[in-house]
Amino acid sequence: MARDDTPKTGFRDAILWHLTYTLGKDPDHAQILDWRLALSHAVRDRIVDRWVEATRATYRADAKRVYYLSMEFLIGRLLEDNIVNLQLADQAQAAMESFGLDYRGILLDEPDAALGNGGLGRLAACFMESLATLGCPAYGYGIRYEHGLFRQSFADGRQIEAPEHWLQQPYVWQFERAEASFTLGFGGRVVTRDGKLVWEPENLVQSEAYDIPVIGWRGDWANTLRLWAGRAVDPFDLERFNAGDFTAAAEAEALARTISRVLYPEDSTEKGKRLRLTQEYFFSAASIRDILRRFEADHADLRQLPQKVAIQLNDTHPAIAGPELVRLLHDERGLPFDEALAITQGCVNYTNHTLLPEALESWGEGLFADLLPRHLQIIDRIDDAHGRAHPDRRNTVRGDGRVRMGELSFIMSNRVNGVSALHTGLMKTTVFADQHRLHPDRIVNETNGVTPRRWLHSCNPRLSGLITETIGDGWIGDLEQLQGLEPHVADPGWLARFAAVKAANKADLCNWALREHHVTLNPDALFDVQIKRIHEYKRQHLNILETIALWQEMREIPSSDWTARVKIFAGKAAPGYFFAKDIIRLINDVAAVINADATTNEKLRVIYLPNYNVTLAERLIPAADLSEQISTAGKEASGTGNMKFALNGAPTIGTLDGANVEIRELVGAENFFLFGLTAEEAEARRTLPDHAARAVSADPRLTRAVEAIRSGAFSPDEPDRYAGIVENLTGADYFLVASDFGDYWRAQREVDFTYADRDTWARMAALNVARSGWFSSDRTIRGYMRDIWNAKSLLGQG
Ligand code: H2P
To answer: What catalytic activity is recorded (predicted)?
Structure first.
C-alpha cells in the first residue's frame, strides 16, 4: 500500500493505511494500542462525510438548532458505539481477526471517558445519540475534563480516589478547533462609560474547543459534542523564566488549566466553590458566544433568535448562560434590556433532575459579586422584572445572602421540565409550587429514556440476537416494536432460549469476576444488583441491612431451602460525602465477614466492584437477575438504570419512586416487586417522633442487624466504626430506612420464592423486556422536540 492510496478503498485496507501512514507503524510490530487507534481512524473517516453533510443540511434549511448545555457528558467508550451505529461491526470484527487480533480485546482497550458522575451525565450522552438518530440538528456543550471523575479503588474497604487519565493516549474522536476559541473574563468591576454599565474583568482565560462527532443509528446523521478546555491567554512568561523563576513562568497556564481538570472539585472550601462557579461560567459563556456567533453568521435580526435557537440547561449548572446571553444582547449588542430578556427567555429551557436541596445550587453573594459582578446586576434586573410582572410572588433569586440558581433558571426559561411523571408532579407541589402558581403552563414532563443501541443492542449481543431473530431488527431504531415479543413469551421453547441468554451472560460475568477480581460466583444464584452513586436517598444501606439480616437468618436455620444470592454493589461516593463513604466501607466489611462464613457461603455472597463506570454497567446489566431501585419515595427524580435493567430482563425490586412508577405500570404490577412507603406516606412518617427507633424495636430482624453493626461484628478491630450510621438509623433516619425495612424484607422473600420457579421468573423477565420499549431516549427526545424546543428532524423523523 502506498501513501497515495485513499484510505477508503475497503475497510480492512483503510485500517492498514492508517496504521502505516497516520500512526507510522509497521503491522509486524504494532501493539494493541496502535491497532485500536488505526481502527478508530478508519471508523472516524466514515463519520466525517456524514457529519459534514449534516452540518450543510442544517445551514441549507436554516433549521432551528438545539443546544444542550451540560456539566456532564458521561459518554464512556465510543469505538463500539460508532462501529455499531455505522453498522460496521461484522467488517470490523473480520478485519481485526484477519490481523490475528481479538476484536473485543481491541474494543475494551479504549479508556472510559468518565466525564460525568451518574444518571444526569449518562442521560446527556443518551440524548446526544438519540438527537443524531432522529436527525435533529443539535450541539452538546460541556467541559473537556482532563481527569473526569476520579478513579475509585478500595484500601481496607475504604474508598480511595485517584485521578483518571483518559487523555493520556491519543484520543481519536476529538477534533481540536483552534479557530473557535473565546477569551472570557472573570472578576474586576463594572464601570459607567457613555452612560452605560460596562464590565471590566480583571482576569482573562481562553476557552479552546474540541469537537467530538456523535453519529446516530444507521449513520444517517451526525451532530457535534463540543467540549471546552481552559488555556491561558499568555501561557508563558519569558521574563520570569529568564529570571530563573521557572514555575512562576508557567503559572498562568497552570491556573487556566485548573478550570478543566476535574469534574466536581471538592467544594467544601471557599476555593473549591470559586473553582466550581468558575467552571460553570466558563463553559456557559463560551457556549453562548459560540451560539451567537453561529446565528449571526447568517442572521442580522437578533429578535429571530428564539426561532433558530433552543438552549437546554441540564440542571442549574449552566444557569448563568441566561444572564450571559442577556449581557451580550444588551451590553454588547445594544438591545434594550427588556427585549434582551424576552429574547433570552424565548430560547432558554431548564431541566430539573432532583428536588434535593443540596442540588439546587445557590451561591454566596460575596463570591458571586467578586467573580461575576455584572451578572449579579443583571440577575437583579431580571428578578425585578419578574417581581413587577408578578407582584404576588413569594420567591426571589436573591435572599439570605445567596443567589439561588433554581429560581433564576425557572424565571429565565420558556419551559421547565421534570424527568418522570411523579417527579414533575412533585415539582409543582413542592420546590416550584409558587413558580407553578404564577406560570401554570411552564412545567412539563419528559420521562427519561436510554438509548437502545448501547443499552441493549451492543451491551447484550445475545439478547439482541434473539430479539432480532424473533421480530426482525426494526426494534433497534423503534424500541416499541419489542411488544412483538409478547406472544413468544408463552412459547416454552422461546422462553428457554431467553433464559439461556441470561445464563450465558451470567457465566461471562462469573468468568470475568474470577479473572479480574479473583472471586468465585455461583452462576446459578440470583444476581441481585445495585449499581449507582452512593447516596443516603438511594439507600444502599437498606440493602446491606437486609443482607445482614438474611445472613443471620441463614446461619440460624441453615437447613432451610434458601435461594442462593449474589449481592452485587458498585458505585462511587462524592469525595466530601463522609456518610456515603462509611456506607461503602460497611458494605466491604460486611462482604468480608459473610464471604468468609462457611455455613452460608454457598447461598450468600456479597461483592463490591470498584470503579463503577459506563463499561462496568454494560457488563453487569445484561447479567443481572434483579434490579435494586429502592430509593426513599419522592427522592429519586427518575432513574435510568432502572430502565436499562428492565430492558435487559431484570425485574425490579423497588419503591413507588421516580420512573419506577411508570416501569411498573408498563411491565405490569405482577412483574415488579413493590415495597415501601409512598412519597406521601414518607412525608407523613417523617413527622412522627421517634419513627426510626420505633421501627427498629418493632422488628426483631432489624434490631438484630443493627445490633451486629453496633457491636462491631463487621469491624472487630474498631467496634464503633459505624457509630454514625447506627445513630442515624435509630435516630433522625430522614430517608426512612428503618420504616421501609420490614416491607423490603417481605418483598425480598417474595423474590426468593418466585426465583425458585425458574419458568415463572423467565416469563417475568421476558415481559419486562417486551414491555419496556417506551423507555427509549428516542421517545424522550421526540417529546423535547415537540413540547419544549419546537425543533424539527431533518430526516423526517419526528
Ligand atoms: C439524577 C437523578 C436521577 C435521574 C437523572 C437523570 C441527578 O441522576 O438523581 O433520578 O434519573 O439525574 O435525569 P443520578 O442520581 O443518577 O446522578
So the answer is: [(1->4)-alpha-D-glucosyl](n) + phosphate = [(1->4)-alpha-D-glucosyl](n-1) + alpha-D-glucose 1-phosphate
